[in-house]
Amino acid sequence: MKKIRIPPLLLTGILALLMWLLSTVTWIIPMPESIRLISASIPLAVGAVFTLGGVMAFRVARTTVDPRTPEKASALVTSGVYRYSRNPMYVAFALFLLAWAIYLAAPWSLGGVAGFVLFMDRLQIPAEEQALESLFGDDFRRYRERVRRWL
């Protein structure tokens, strides 16, 4: 499988910019900024929990956080938020994009969230999982059977 080398954080930033640009030329839902802020704060806060939980679990395991080099993983992390999702940081990035779409109040900007999930699910994650399976074998296969890719 071809390895994808786009850093997910960079992809998130690019999509956020495209979502904003789209919001400037498409229909937006008229609502007060305070409502948009409050509504966007919920997925933003949940995403922050997933991000921090994921990074902390990797730090405790003393393994790489860089998804571009999964072959450098020194440990299979299955604790903390990794008990609920094999990709909690990607869940977090999707939630950040959802929060941004809510704040923009531009329904078409939700395409950025969908694009992120599709890209990660079809191109990035399979390459990472292939590397993890070659490194951790049966341990990874059992983990994959027990924990969902997203949520």
Tag the structure with descriptive keywords.
151 residues; 4 helices; elongated
What does this structure look like?
The radius of gyration is 17 Å and the shape is elongated. It has 151 residues and is mainly α. The chain is built from four helices and no strands. The model has no long low-confidence stretch (mean pLDDT 93). The chain has helices at 8-25, 33-61, 88-104, 110-146.
Order of helices and strands: HHHH
- The DSSP helix count reads 4
As residue ranges, the low-confidence spans are none
Radius of gyration: 17 Å
What does the oligomeric state look like here? single chain
Residues in helices, as a percent range: 55-70%
Coarse structural class: mainly alpha
Main sheet summary? none
* Overall morphology: elongated
Tally the structural domains.
1
Nearest-integer average pLDDT: 93
User: Total number of β-strand segments?
Assistant: 0
Span between termini: 24 Å
Strand content: under 5%
What topology does this entry show?
Elements: H1 8-25, H2 33-61, H3 88-104, H4 110-146
Brief write-up:
The protein is 67% helix and 0% strand. It has 4 helices and no strands.
